[in-house]
Amino acid sequence: MGSTSNLFTEYCMNIRTLIFLLILLPLMFFGILLILLLTAINPTGSSFYKIAAWWGRLSARLFGISIEVIGQDNYSPDQHYLVISNHAGMADIPLLLGTMKLNLRFMAKEELGKIPLFGRALKQAGYVMIKRGQNRDALNSLFEATEVLKKGHSLHIFPEGTRSATGELLPFKRGAFRVAMKGGAPVLPVTIIGSHLITPKKSLKINKGTIKVIIDKPIQPSSFATVEELMAACSKSVTANFNRYSNS
Length: 248
Known about the structure:
By secondary structure, the protein is α/β, with parallel strands linked by helices. The protein has one domain: Glycerol-3-phosphate (1)-acyltransferase, CATH 3.40.1130. The chain has helices spanning about 1-40, 45-65, 90-100, 110-115, 120-125, 135-150, 175-185, 195-200, 225-245, and strands at about 65-70, 80-85, 105-110, 130, 155, 185-195, 210-215. A 7-stranded mixed sheet has the order 1-7-6-2-5-3-4, with helices on both faces. The longest helix has about 40 residues, at about 1-40.
């Protein structure tokens, strides 16, 4: 009985992967073409957000992913923020696009910007491509991110810099909070719980399950004297919600 159950679980996981490859991936391709067309007409980036948010919600439904959002009233859709969150799964970006009522741009790895059509769509939508390290290109990316905030757009950054394989929190890095200090926008701390179980690191399998998204109250960068103090306050917020809601 146990062996049959395990085989059934593996089969279901493969089915979800096939759904992604045969349904969602083609939809994403046609969506990118539509985005490129619409962005040429309206370069605000709103077309990308609307289509990507719809794609994210559809993906959750098809995969059997339940999303519990806590703290939706802690922010205003009419305001712009630097949104920061922990990063535990490949589903995090479409998840946030589908659940948050903000026209979010993301800071993304430069490799994504090199993918034909997809990379072009990201750049036209106002996404910021970042090169890892402490070189001039990385500093220029932080400057671009600051400009996004100064123009009144919301931006998301994963301050951990990489995905957590276990779902546990990783140390925050300073870059996101330097952007917050210079950009002047409120920081919106978001905690994601459970996404590492949906799309495990180094695996193509996709699981169903429940993901919690906890949105805390905005933190004003002007209330802190240093980048380190702001980073500590944001880390404390994400950690507190992670500990509070992980086992609830």
